[in-house]
Input
Amino acid sequence: MFSDQIAFEPSQASTKFDCQVSANHRLRQLEMDDASELFSLVDTNRTYLRRWLSWLNTTETIDDTRHFIRQTQKRAQDRQGFAAAVIHKGNIVGVAGLNGISWSDRSSSIGYWIAEPYQGKGLITRSCRAILDHAFQDRSLNRIAILCASQNVRSQAIPQRLGFTHEGRLRQAQWLYDHFVDHEVYSILSHEWKRQP
Output
């Protein structure tokens, strides 16, 4: 399933990420045509998302969402990660992807969020599983991290469920509008992921 070849530079393979996770669940790289639907999803879930995400004040118009999508497309083109729409039954319900890639260290981190009505359906866990397969198999990365706010128990359940190791706590790692929050750091290595069923 995994290549024994170690690639220390970005692969010349396609930069587009598209994965059919299940019959009703797809991950695909964000496109400009997604701006209206994505902004509407963020706007509808604004109060809920503010509890853990610090970028809501910079996403106040559809143009802000277009700017975000352009940034993610540039990052993908430069082989520095990607942001994918989490699609459930044809609708965008969240975003997940690889945040940045250190090719010299062969490491990255996964970021994700999902709209409140779609929590608890396993969509983010399965999305992360697909991203991990891609990161380790297609990109030959060695280490993937997930950072979660210390009080965000639901988010921490994702890396725990996927067999990540808890590495520790980053104190006051994020300014969240009017207060600092600590982050829990989880990671998994390529050889650990390969051993999983």
Summary: The two ends are 12 Å apart (CA to CA). Helices lie at 35-44, 46-50, 62-77, 123-138, 153-161, 190-195.
